[in-house]
Design goal:
Blueprint: E1 2-8, E2 13-19, E3 25-29, H1 35-44, E4 48-53, H2 59-62, H3 65-72, E5 75-79, H4 83-87, E6 107-109, E7 114-117, E8 120-126, E9 135-139, E10 144-148, E11 151-152, E12 155-156, H5 166-177, E13 185-188, E14 194-195, H6 196-202
Helix pairs in contact: 1-3
């Protein structure tokens, strides 16, 4: 698996462009902003975008979607209980940034579902807490987890935004993320990559 990390937007969101090694198809995870920058990378690499996967619906993870769709196409995937937040500018936080954004996901995902896209398999792991519809995308074959804002290096996501829940987040972190194999690499929504073993030893919320 080849993973490109583009840091986009005002809060330095990690946008991931992912493709199977040797394949010309890719997916984009969390295009928070700067659609032109993301599309330019896809074009430079000669890739075809097959889908946009969202770990959750906050503005800093979805603002670039419309522009990206117009430039490279693809379907938008989000967890089934995140639609309401994505469609509400107050819940998704875009209002506090001075604009109103409502984004309709085209494909709704379920917990435990294995999504086959661009020649890759990702297990959908529902990890409520940061938002009620937060999820992670796990490649068992490559031992890679895209965690969104559920967990960061030595930290976890905030729970004081709409639909956040601290108890649920702790359960998600401890029983769904850190229960994975210690050698699983974690690619979070913000900050550097980490792995399960490191977070077990160093994350104060473990």
């Amino acid at each position: 698996m080849e993973i490109a990390i583009l840091t986009v937007g005002p809060v330095q969101t990690n946008c991931y462009i992912v493709n199977k090694e040797g394949s010309s198809s890719c997916i984009v995870i969390d295009p928070g902003e700067e659609a032109e920058k993301i599309a330019a990378y896809i074009g430079k690499k000669g890739l075809k975008n097959e889908g946009i996967l969202l770990t959750h619906g906050h503005f800093d993870h979805i603002t670039g979607i419309s522009g990206l769709l117009s430039l490279v196409g693809g379907k938008v995937y989000a967890y089934e209980t995140e639609r309401e937040l994505m469609m509400d500018p107050r819940q998704n936080g875009s209002v506090m940034m001075g604009y109103e954004l409502a984004m309709e996901p085209e494909r709704l995902l379920r917990d435990g579902q294995v999504l086959n896209i661009a020649g890759m398999d990702f297990k959908v792991i529902h990890t409520p807490g940061h938002t009620k519809g937060s999820c992670c995308f796990y490649s068992e074959e490559d031992k890679i987890l895209f965690s969104g804002d559920t967990i960061f290096m030595e930290s976890v996501g905030r729970t004081d935004f709409p639909t956040g829940n601290a108890r649920e987040l702790m359960d998600s972190v401890r029983n769904k993320v850190l229960s994975l194999s210690p050698d699983v690499t974690i690619y979070p929504g913000h900050g550097p990559e980490t792995d399960v073993a490191y977070e077990m030893a160093n994350n104060p919320y473990a």
